Amino acid sequence: MKGIDVWSAEYEGLQEIGGSKCNRPSSDLPHLDFSADLLQLQPVLLSADSGGSYLALRAVNAADQPLVDTWPATDQKIIGSQWFATDQGHFDRTAKALGSRGIVLSQELSEAQELWLLWHSELDVEYFEGEHPKGVVQARPEALRSVPGELVDAVLYPYQATGVSKLTSMATQGLGCLLADEMGLGKTIQAIALMSWMTRNNGSPSLVVAPSSTTANWCRELSRFAPHLSIYEHAGPQRTGDPSVLRGFDVVVTSFDLLIRDEFMLRAIKWTAISVDEAQNIKNPQAQRSQVLKRLNSRTIIAITGTPIENSLTDLWSIMALVAPDHLSSLDDFKIQYPDEALAALELGRRVAPLIIRRRVSEVADDLPARTDSAVPVHASNLLALEYERIRLDESMPPLAKVGYLRQACSSLRCLDGANPPITTGNPKYERALQIIAEAFSRDCKVLLFASFTSTIDEIQQDLLSRFTSAFVSRLDGQVPIRERQSKIDEFTHFPGPAILVLNPKAAGVGINIQAANYVIHFTPEWNPATIDQASARSYRRGQDKPVFVYSLYYKDTVEELMLERVQAKRVLSAHGLKAAEELPSTRELEEMLMRSPKGSSI
């Protein structure tokens, strides 16, 4: 009996089917609830134990919306105690369309299949949020379950091995990837393993594009972990202008600046893989470096960054437009579909998940030592409070500039009469920093101190050199030539005793590993939590074997206190997908900052 006949007998009074009399179905089968609606099956994605996804169906108009793992075989189906008529033709067409992509219910999906489902299938695919059914999920035949051997001269952590397997699997499918593990989890070695695998299987060279401050470190890490690869650093005035020279190496390392200058030579090469380090540098899709990268010829592109979004969701669009240009809509449509809101960020995070490897330190690095983060409030001196009030009440300055001057006043070690050298006594925040440094030195430990202003770095370095004559004291900021920064870190690391580096968080906050230090002092707050977190992660990362202490110093009732409150609020938002607020404060936030004064709480 056809489903339409059963439905008609139940709801339209049909009493004869094929010349035979029939009763109302519910009278003959009282234990069944005959639905008046056609069965509606919603495609849903579920997580497999392997970390991948598989496709199932949810009966959205059945009681409790159960999951089913097979398409209806006829034009009617019983689910639990409910009977439904089905549009079998529609289901057959949908199953055939999925089958043309190799998609089978309850079989693990490849990244390419999942992306097609989410972006191109025109199916209203959802993520299943309930309890997963107990069932067997078939692994896809081509899934890579282990890291191909002899890729790197190191023992990978399990999560790193999983990352390399996913990278190689995606490269095999012709996909790029955003490698967005948190700072300190070894993104570099995973990228090196991928390039080693690609070189072994394709023969042509790979390209690494990185900030000029980290190209030397990339060469060092490649030589350390993949000594079988030939490395060429494309840098300096003596660099080659002949593409055939580059083709003779396994890996070429260059900077964003030289990428632009030497675009036409780099475009002449068919790269097997391109690794873009600190990929937040291409967050502006209109920037020249972003445009040049899109014009290069490569089998796969890996964007590497622990902070895929610094300011807005547009940052992620720019990166995805590089690694997966066929999957996102135009930038204008994207901004409409995904505004800078938590719910939009959560939905976007789910839809781009097949293209992203993102693990957090707290999830996978349980072997790291303890880390203690402390926000340390300090009362301003009377002298600073008076200067703070003078700036705050100056009506000749616009609000943002005024906040900038207030930050500098809270950061400076100098007396207000401009004494030179700076007089550090009576500066409560610096005195607290000195206490922390003295404690670290008493334990024979090393310290990183981050300050935002060059003048402050000058003052602190000068004072520390006079105080701690037997310790190693140096700096790492824009005044130190890029080529000298790694040697400066090496000196700091190998010094046999207490040592301190005074750093600018933006100049030294990315691409640098300084595990020798286990005390970190943030002397001046930053607007962006990513800047602060990256700076802290220079020390707290794989390879660190001592407890790490991170101190954020700030003056109470000043712009510094509100900056730290704002940073914490942005971290809460970041927990919702990939959300990030704008880096600079809004007009309302500026007004709130300028209402607060340390005058009543100074000492």
Overview of this protein structure:
- The longest helix has 16 residues, at 187-202.
- α5 packs across α6 (187-202).
- The strands form six sheets. A seven-stranded parallel sheet has the order 12-13-11-15-17-10-18, with helices on both faces.
- It has 603 residues and is α/β, with parallel strands linked by helices.
- It contains 24 helices and 24 strands.
- The chain folds into three domains: 31-127, no CATH class; 158-363, Tandem AAA-ATPase domain (Rossmann fold, 3-Layer(aba) Sandwich), CATH 3.40.50.10810; 369-595, Rossmann fold (3-Layer(aba) Sandwich), CATH 3.40.50.
- The N and C termini lie far apart (91 Å).
- One of its GO terms (molecular function) is hydrolase activity.
- Its EC number is 3.6.4.-.
- Residues 432-592 form the Helicase C-terminal domain.
- Keywords: ATP-binding, Helicase, Hydrolase, Nucleotide-binding.
